[in-house]
Amino acid sequence: QVQVVESGGGLVQAGGSLRLTCAASGIVFSISTMGWYRQAPGKQRELVAVIGRFGDTNYADSVKGRFTISRVNAKNTVSLQMNSLKADDTAVYYCNAHAIGSYRTEYDYWGQGTQVTVSS
What we know:
- With 120 residues, the protein is mainly beta.
- It is 0% helix and 58% strand.
- It has no helices and eleven strands.
- The mean pLDDT is 96.
C-alpha cells in the first residue's frame, strides 16, 4: 500500500519559519524526484521546490533564498525548511514522489496535503 504522508504545517506569523516533512512508503518503483507543491484558495497548484535523487534542486522564483529542500534517499523522505515566511505563502502544501517503473512508465504519488497559514 502506497503512503505519502506530510507533517509540519501550521500557523505562523510573517517572518517566521516552518519545516515540512514527507515520508513515502510502499512505492516499488525507483523514485526519481521528490518535491513540494502548493495550492492557495482560488489558484492552481504550483511547484514550490523539487529535488532529484542526486541532490539537484529547482525552486520557484518566489521562494528562492527563503526555502530549502532536502532529501534522504534511503528513507524516501523529503523536507522543506521555510524561512522568512510571507502571507503569500499561505496554501495547502502537497508532497509529491515521482517514480519510474518498467518501460520507463512514470508514476506520481501525492500526499493528502498540509495547511500552512502565515498571518501578517
